[in-house]
Amino acid sequence: MNASPLMLDGNRLATEIRAELRQKVQESGASPCLAAILVGNDGGSESYVTHKMNDCAEVGFQSRLIRFPESVSEAELLQAIEGLNQDDGVHGFIVQLPLPKGISNQTIIGAIAPEKDVDGFHPENMGRLTLGLPGFVAATPWGIMELLRRNQISVSGKHVVVIGRSNIVGTPLSILMSRPGADATVTLTHSKTQNLKDICLQADVIVAALGIPGFLRADMVSDGTVVIDVGTTRVPDSSHPRGWRLKGDVAFEEVAPKCSAITPVPGGVGPMTRIGLLMNTWTAYENSVRI
Ligand code: NAP
To answer: Which of 143, 149, 273, 261 is nearest to 205 (CA)?
Structure first.
């Protein structure tokens, strides 16, 4: 039992890294530009994109927001993507997911030029990650690795259990963690995994990324475990002015006392994810001036 675990403060680190990046931009006179395509009026997507644009302004990047109505066709989106692929003034861009029914995520993501795919979702970048080649790593897995690294938490030789195998979090993170250099032994689990509790009890590090609030309970966690909570579900909360609050996948109050380190929600992985996108945009800019 560890009554006061190390709090892995993503907000503090993100502020630190943003300041480092802002200084680099100022000193170099660089002018990186991130564009975002936003379809429809989903509240979550609107706020994610607004944060991304604000983050750009804060570090001295330019940004462009391209909006389409919910009724947009796949062909129109593909045309916009081709425009951004060809636009030398845009160094990286994202298409905010989810997209409306009838539009294929894979077709849209596959149309983004890999060298501008700062979300790291293109099959070429996923393949590069798998092979250990340079490329864009998705922002959330990058953010988790950086959060651990800057808190001097090594996963080398450790047993890391990742709960959730999505293409944007669990799968790329499991690859990053098991690559030479990180050297973790990874168990990637999902909804069909049997005996998840027993597997979690053997973990040195647990990453909960499944989107079920409060899923990871104290009886699934051994003393001294490092717990990373990726979950961000909006749950109704009448005491909050917005009427909702973010809840993670970890039952924080009961799990935290057992941990050696843990991320809060909000303020843990979320701010680090936002930094990941800025870092990828910076890299895309640097690559473009090097060519
Ligand atoms: P997703 O695409 O919905 O995938 C969820 C994964 O969890 C799937 O692999 C699913 O298994 C697995 N799962 C579901 N129920 C399970 C169970 N009972 N036991 C074990 N595994 C189970 O989710 P995502 O996009 O990765 O997002 C996960 C959460 O992270 C969400 O709350 C999301 O909002 C949040 N998120 C946060 C950030 C951030 O920056 N903080 C970034 C991205 C996502 P199957 O594959 O078998 O269906």
So the answer is: 261
Whose CA is closest to atom 18 on ligand 1?
191
Best CA proximity match to 165, nearest among 138, 146, 190, 147? 190
Distance 26 CA to ligand 1 centre (A): 38
Query: 291: pLDDT confidence band, cut at 50, 70 and 90?
Result: low
> If you measure from the C-alpha of residue 287 to the centroid of ligand 1, how many angstroms do you get, rounded to a whole number?
32
Which uninterrupted H or E stretch holds 63? strand 62-68
Residue closest by Cα to atom 34 of ligand 1: 232
Indicate the SS3 state at residue 170: helix
Report the mean per-residue pLDDT for the chain.
97
First-last CA distance in the chain: 54
CATH topology of domain 29-113: Rossmann fold (3.40.50)
33-49 pLDDT, tens per residue? 999 999 999 988 999 99
Higher pLDDT, 289 or 165: 165
Atom from ligand 1 closest to the CA of residue 169: 26
Out of 3.40.50.720, 3.40.50.1220, 1.10.10.10, 3.40.50.2000, the CATH code matching 138-270 is 3.40.50.720
pLDDT band for position 200 (cuts 50, 70, 90): very high
Q: Name the residues annotated as catalytic.
A: 52, 96, 119
Pocket of ligand 1 (CB under 6 A): 140, 163-166, 168-170, 189-193, 196, 209-212, 230-233, 269-270, 273
pLDDT at 277 over 90: yes
Q: For 216, which DSSP code?
A: B
Task: Tell me, in angstroms, the distance from the centre of ligand 1 to residue 118's CA.
Answer: 21
Which residue, by CA, sits nearest to atom 5 of ligand 1?
A: 210
Residue 143 CA: which ligand 1 atom is closest? 40
